[in-house]
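User: Structure with adenosine monophosphate, tokens only please.
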Amino acid sequence: MFNLILFGPPGSGKGTQSVKIAEKYQLKHVSTGDILRAEVKNETELGIKARDIMERGELVPDELLIQILHSVMENNKDVKGFIFDGFPRTIVQAGALDKLMTKLNVGISNVISLDVADEEVIARLLKRAEIESRKDDNKETINNRLSVYKNQTSPLLDYYTKQDKLIKIVGVGSIDDIFNSICEKLDK
Ligand code: AMP
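Assistant:
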């Protein structure tokens, strides 16, 4: 199996690049943000628990994400691999993912981190707010999401550097240029 993780602050282009990578390498795209937004929309038990937390830009509890991870793996037994977009976001989630991968006798091949400066992601998210009307794309929540990324998620970069899996990519430029630099590294 070829399993990838895509990291980056909110607004770094993770979603866009994940879709392209999934298509090229024929991987199942798993965006936990998209999964959670669908749960909220359908007012499921999980969605009801997650809604207010997401609107504040905080992280949904690890146990709910681990529940999502298990059902994704359970329902996609025949795929060539996964690209995880927005997951894991905490050390606990990364540990759960490792444990599950080990149990299935597979592993994470690479972890891609998209580097984009704060001012740039803030500008992009405010622009997205005008187009998409995502409840968490407003100035206050954006700042909160950025600090959550720095405090809770970026320590994972160290975790994967230690496993020699991290690929850093400059996330500024055209979508295609960024995509090409990702593919170049993955194909090496
Ligand atoms: P995203 O679309 O990846 O920016 O995610 C939107 C929101 O969903 C985040 O701000 C969190 O509230 C929640 N979320 C998505 N993925 C996770 C995760 N792996 N752990 C906790 N919360 C998550």
